[in-house]
Amino acid sequence: MINRFSNQQFLEIVNDENKLDIGSFKILLEQFYGERNELDFKESMIEVHKLAKLILAMANSGGGTIVFGITDDTNEAVGLNETDVEDPTDLERKLRNIIPDQLQFDSQIIRYPQHEVYLNLSGKLFFIIYVLNEERYIPFLSKRPTTGIETNRIYIRRNASIEEANNYEIEQMIIKRVHSVYSDLSSLDLQEHLQQLKILYTNISEYEMKSPFENINKLGIYNKVINRSYPTESFNLYISRCIEKKKRKIEEILEILE
């Protein structure tokens, strides 16, 4: 009987902070069957432009994992040859010529020792790429056109395949991006917001120094002149006004507002 992981079970395995190890990877192959939008199996390494397109599509679809060394039709663990696996640093450099810098991904090599306990995985090597979920930067577009990739196209994962996003899917990406940015801002606590406001106030002077002798200003004689760009309300007055508003809000909740 074939067991299928739920989405949550799959995420619990592949999102572990230590990534997959030889134990969790074995469990994944034993209990999970078939590809999905967040998981793609490749029997062998693929060309850089094809990999870049797959990474773009996954990044626009919430992230995912690409496993090399597994057949995509039967999920057979065939493994890779050492010579087939490119140095991760060199591979990333090539990919960065196509995919944007904000798109975050990581890679990992898993090697199984020669031991009967690992059964069909014994002595085999696998290469894994993790594509992170970065909703605040979606949709991701290619830096430049290349084979099979256009710069004005948004690629996504749909039904475990790479497709061009339709209008509805693009709208959903924009909504996710807005929510992600707003969430980052709203996660600041009160003290952080106030500290940022203080910093803004310190970067503008209440007064400007102007010389009454414009033609001979090298004398170093200056007058203090009010800076017209300075906020009409001081930081302290602003805080005082916020306190009064907060007090009224509390009184509304308590139904004691006069």
From TrEMBL:
Signal peptide: none annotated. Pfam families: SLFN_AlbA_2. InterPro entries: Schlafen_AlbA_2_dom, Schlafen_AlbA_2_dom_sf. It comes from the Bacteria. Residues 35-165 form the Schlafen AlbA-2 domain. This is Schlafen AlbA-2 domain-containing protein. It comes from Neobacillus cucumis.
